[in-house]
Amino acid sequence: MLGSTIIDQARRASNDTDSTNPFHTDANLLDLLDNWQTDLALKLRYPRKQDTISFALGAGGAAGVVDIDTDILDINAVVLEPSSGTDYTRLKPISEFELSRRRPSWRSTDNANARPSFYVLMDAPVLAAAEFPQRRITTDTTFDVAMTMRVYATQAPAALTAQTDSPIFQVPFHVTAVYYLAWHMLLPRNIEKSIVFGRLYEKEVQRIKSQSKEFSDDSSQVWDTIHAGGEMTPERLSM
Asked: What is the pTM of this model?
């Protein structure tokens, strides 16, 4: 459906149909549609993207922090890809604070190069001109060989610039947009009905998601495959 169709249906569902003096303007509802897209993207881990970062020998660690794309909503997995060979490594996430707690010396320039075990999203995002803040990524140690880091992530959907735009999600999910808008449109006017639409939204997302293999938690992809390993030991993925 077009954005305009979703907005019209949400107006009827929330009884905000006075065309001369609506409680919410169309511009307000277009903003809510963008909020819906962002929320649904996080629930579905879709749309997906890769951010590819090259690390030279000795790069990474505290001195090798790299900016990641500002349209990344959430990181699903991080894999290191060798320039040759098949020794892929999946990195585990760890916060800057937790790594500093476990190994206070990780920032030292005297540490020897090694194969990283963790990726580190730096704790302080940077305010950016983009719609989302600039976040930075590094590893728990500097690299002992040159590697390519592939960040598999959920991408922020492109904003709807006009009601004639259609959301990025498939048509079956558009009804969830109606529920989402009605939920938020009713918040300042009728909290009981608002709660009903909020529950409808959550249930419908889960119902449609359960019927689609595209949005199931498929462990067949390399970045979703977890192999047992030690706490501080890299996970090797032999391809």
From this structure: 0.82
